[in-house]
Amino acid sequence: MFDLGTGLRYSCGQSGVPSPFRGACLLTHMHWDHIQGLPFFMPTLRDGAHFDIYAPTQDDGRTVAEVFDAIIRPPMFPISLRELPGTFNFHDVADDDFMVGGYQVRSRLVPHIGNTLGFRVTWGGKTVVYLSDHQMPLDGSMGLADGARELCEGADLLIHDAQYTPHEFVEKNNWGHCTVDYALWVAAECGVKTLALFHHDPARCDDEVDQLLEAAACEGDKRGVQVFAAHEGLTVTV
Ligand SMILES: [Zn+2]
Ligand SMILES: [Zn+2]
Question: How far is CA 43 from its chain centroid?
Fold first, then answer.
């Protein structure tokens, strides 16, 4: 899985999950919206569960394990991570290429706020890229860091930050995110087949997302990129 947001509470309930549970997460960064689901992820709250978490090395020298240990403990949470029944294994990664199960994973540090990774996962000849939080150039121009380009090149599916309209970006240009237009530009620039607009602004309602999608899909048609808006419960076949 990618990231550990609140959706974890509602995904993979007790039924249908093999026991003992074995899982792995590619975690982009430590901001709240990406980590707070972890202690509520039911499959890991059972004896024998084993969960590997790959996350960015911190620039203050702390390991990923130390960061989680500092967050999941009283008074923020009733017990510490070590007291949960499952085993959590934390792996510090940066610009790396590695295997998780049978999946080929490429991680690259990408522009955001604090150390943040994007991931490229390849399996069975298909590639999915996850770039959830991506700071575009502050002046609103189009440009792409080498690491991000290495992730996106020729992907079948790119799940990309699409938080702002150009007008909103002017107000919040250093908040670590980008516009829908930028997401589409990255996809077209890197020869991506399908773009999932993701990390919608939290204040956006569904109708507004639909409107942004309509414009982006129309523009995507012209540039050879299929575009859709990610939403809760959506299943995509690659
Ligand atoms: Zn973030
Ligand atoms: Zn975020």
Answer: 20
